[in-house]
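SAMPLE LOG
Freezer: B-3
Tube label: C17
Construct: single chain, 93 aa
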Amino acid sequence: MGTMYYYVVSAVVAGTNSADSAQASAATLSPTMGSLVHRYSFSETGGASVADSVGGPVWNGTLPSGGTLSGGQLALSSNAQQYASLLPASSVP
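STRUCTURE (predicted):
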């Protein structure tokens, strides 16, 4: 969860303050909950890395066993055990 806010409402009617309402609360979403954290568009035209356009360069992936980047697609061969490798969470600065 993000930040929790608490509030009460009162009014001034003909110069007199009304009693406060019951307390209400609202919460914002955490930046990591319900938000896009990573995005890999595979828009590269070659090479052995895939860029994370939301998380930034620290989350860029690599293609350690090959793969083909073309036309916004990443083609992998299961016969060659190809995959996209992402930085493990324990390595994030």
